[in-house]
Amino acid sequence: MRDAVLAEIREIALPLAEATMTSLYAAPLPDVVPALERIVTDADADLGFRLFLRALKAYFVEIDEGTLNRFCALGERFGYHELAVEDGNLNIRYSDLAD
Fold it and tell me: Residue ranges of the domains in the chain?
């Protein structure tokens, strides 16, 4: 599970790091990505994933539907209720709203 969580963190590392330094609504949080990686590797992948989701929500980092689906699948592997991942606070870019 550690590798899967680390892969997701690294996939969104740049937008997350940028958002934590430029947000008008939340305090700057330098070095958030290395901190999350250390939590996953040195402490617990479950805790690291939960904190990662919280950071994405707090800093309103945009993700796409594919990323959301991966997060949900990873959450299932941890045994999360579906609302533990997507509780309405993730910033999701939907690819096709015209249907």
Answer: 2-93
